[in-house]
Amino acid sequence: MLTSRSKRSLIAGCYLLLVFVLWSTEAHPHGHEHGHDVDYHAPAHYKFDYKVHDPHTGDVKSQWEHRDKDKVKGGYTIHDPDGSVRTVEYHADKHNGFNAVVKKHGHSHHPHVYGHKDAH
């Protein structure tokens, strides 16, 4: 089960990826880059990765992905608020579809008391 902080981190990562994709398509909307035509039927190739380590919020995560033609491989790691580290590695292709392996490392730590006892 994802905590609200983990959900926000995952949403933020997806949002950053979406912004990058939209930025790259708007930068060259007609398929011309410095006067060269783009072959839209050529095999797709890309690589990206990013890391976040924000000591103020405690947000620590990273993601990487690369694509070669119709094969995609990637993964991400996120430090969950309970103290554990979640790692997801995935791959996808037209024969096997999307496959992900999720691993959780470390022990979950939860406070013994939730909320402030003077909150009545």
UniProtKB/TrEMBL annotation:
PROSITE patterns: CHIT_BIND_RR_1, CHIT_BIND_RR_2. Pfam families: Chitin_bind_4. The keyword Metal-binding does not apply. Residues 1-27 form the signal peptide. InterPro entries: CHIT_BIND_RR_consensus, Insect_cuticle, Insect_Cuticle_Struc_Prot. It comes from the Eukaryota. Residues 59-80 are annotated as: Disordered. Keywords: Cuticle, Signal. The keyword Oxidoreductase does not apply. This is Cuticular protein. It comes from Nesidiocoris tenuis.
